[in-house]
């Protein structure tokens, strides 16, 4: 095919066709990587959409289009970086399962930069409604439901009494870990051994009698 001619008869050439818009999956990964790097370098205090967008090579409009707040973006970057999933297995041994689940949770949050970053996200959620909702609905709720399912199955097997309030058990176990994460100087360091001890104590309390 020959090049088109303009009205004067001179041959013209079209500019080369560029890549155009990047696929969303590529843009999303660039934004999440930039967000994680920013979060770990500056903490939540220095975490801004402007910094992330500039680092990812996208516009602020693009970021705001897919994340409602800087906090929600920071949470997505955190979970994407550490590949946090819901691989909670019910092996039929509730003590073993809970020790593994809570131990892995403690292992992650006892490490850097995961622990400090997550503690800052929890703090920021107190004044960021979008972040609070994201943590509650996309992080806490599905994991809580998975653990409650394991405890419900354990009740049916007779490993724990049928009248035990398993929601209280979950609050006790995870609450103890969050307490150590947020106040290490006061309560002690969060470790896997601590988490497993919490499981043992929660099960001992659940199986003790009588209960009001």
SSE topology sketch:
Elements: H1 24-42, H2 49-56, H3 60-66, H4 70-82, H5 94-109, H6 114-124, H7 129-157, H8 166-182, H9 184-187, H10 192-207
Helix pairs in contact: 1-2, 1-4, 2-3, 4-6, 4-7, 5-10, 8-10
- Spans of at least 5 consecutive residues whose pLDDT stays below 50 are 1-18
Mean pLDDT: 87
Total number of beta strands: 0
Percent strand: under 5%
C-alpha end-to-end distance: 88 Å
- Which structural class fits the helix and strand makeup? mainly alpha
Characteristics of this structure?
mainly alpha; 212 residues; 10 helices; elongated; disordered N terminus
Structure commentary:
The structure is a single chain. The chain is built from ten helices and no strands. It is mostly helical. The longest helix is centred in the last third of the chain and has 29 residues. It starts with 23 loop residues before the first helix and ends in a 5-residue tail after the last helix.
In short:
The chain is mostly helical.
């Amino acid at each position: 095919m020959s090049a088109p001619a303009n009205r004067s008869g001179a041959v013209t050439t079209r500019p080369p066709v560029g890549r155009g818009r990047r696929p969303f999956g590529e843009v999303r990964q660039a934004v999440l990587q930039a967000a994680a790097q920013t979060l770990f370098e500056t903490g939540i205090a220095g975490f801004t959409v402007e910094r992330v967008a500039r680092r990812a090579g996208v516009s602020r409009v693009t970021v705001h289009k897919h994340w409602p707040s800087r906090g929600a973006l920071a949470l997505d970057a955190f979970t994407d970086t550490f590949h946090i999933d819901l691989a909670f297995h019910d092996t039929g041994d509730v003590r073993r399962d809970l020790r593994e689940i809570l131990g892995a949770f403690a292992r992650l949050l006892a490490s850097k930069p995961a622990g400090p970053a997550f503690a800052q996200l929890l703090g920021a959620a107190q004044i960021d409604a979008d972040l609070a909702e994201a943590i509650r609905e996309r992080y806490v709720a599905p994991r809580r439901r998975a653990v409650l399912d394991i405890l419900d199955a354990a009740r049916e097997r007779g490993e724990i009494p049928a009248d035990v309030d398993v929601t209280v058990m979950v609050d006790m176990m995870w609450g103890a870990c969050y307490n150590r994460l947020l106040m290490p100087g006061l309560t002690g360091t969060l470790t896997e051994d601590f988490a497993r001890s919490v499981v043992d104590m929660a099960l001992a309390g659940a199986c003790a009698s009588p209960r009001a």
